[in-house]
Amino acid sequence: QSVLQGIILLPLRAVCITFILLLAWLSASIATFCQPGRGFLPLRGWRRRMIQTTLSSLTRTAFFVMGFQVKVKGKVASLAEAPIFVAAPHSSFFDAIICALTGMPSIVSRAENLSTPVFGTILRSLQPVAVSRQDPDSRKNTVAEITRRALSRGQWPQVI
Predict the structure, then answer these.
(1) Residue 89, preceding peptide bond in cis (omega within 30° of 0)
(2) Nearest residue to 104 (alpha-carbon basis) of 143, 48, 46
(3) Cα 31–37–38 angle (5° rounding)?
(4) Splitting the chain (160 residues) into consecutive groups of 10 residues, what average pLDDT does each group show?
(5) pTM of the predicted structure, to 2 decimals
(6) For a tag on the chain, would you pick the N or C end, based on fewer CB atoms within 10 A?
(7) Would you say residue 159 lies in a domain?
């Protein structure tokens, strides 16, 4: 019986996750279409709210479809309380759960990830701090950018 459930559930889950991923890509594309500042200025107004609500909900739904049920104990720190989140060890796709639960903050990511089809568009909508492994000054520039965003008095979203 469990084999039969797997045969039915696996393709159904794959279709649902693909649909959710395409909705997330569409939402990210709409929110960043003709974006002023093209990543150098923070998203504001409806664009930021769309990213926070839509992508957060879709990410939570995708993890639910995959079989994860996450329960939050306590309260997520606000931007004023914690302009920077630290998630460690960030070595898997489970970091997306943290992003969804914290309202889709900006993240620190490899610059190469921004050119990935579909995922790159979604990632760019989070306005990441891009780290280039080829640039010898990248570490210093990354620290400077994270500091600049953390000290922006709420203009930029939290950074994880």
Answers:
(1) yes
(2) 48
(3) 55
(4) 76 94 94 75 87 92 89 83 78 78 86 89 89 88 90 86
(5) 0.82
(6) N
(7) no
Q: Kindly give, in sequence order, each residue whose CB lies less than 8 Å from that of residue 75, ignoring residues fewer than 6 positions away.
A: none
How many independent structural domains does the chain possess? 1
Domain contains 160: no
- Position of tokens 């500091």? 147
User: Which domain, by its residues, includes 137?
Assistant: 1-151
Give the C-alpha separation, 157 to 52, whole Å: 10
Residue 10 to residue 25: CA distance in whole angstroms? 22
Q: What does the pLDDT read at residue 57?
A: 93
Give the list of residues 6+ apart from residue 31 with CB closer than 8 angstroms, or none.
43, 47, 48, 50, 51, 54, 125
Does 132 map to a domain? yes
Contact 154, 78 (CB under 8 A): no
Q: What's the pLDDT score for residue 92?
A: 74
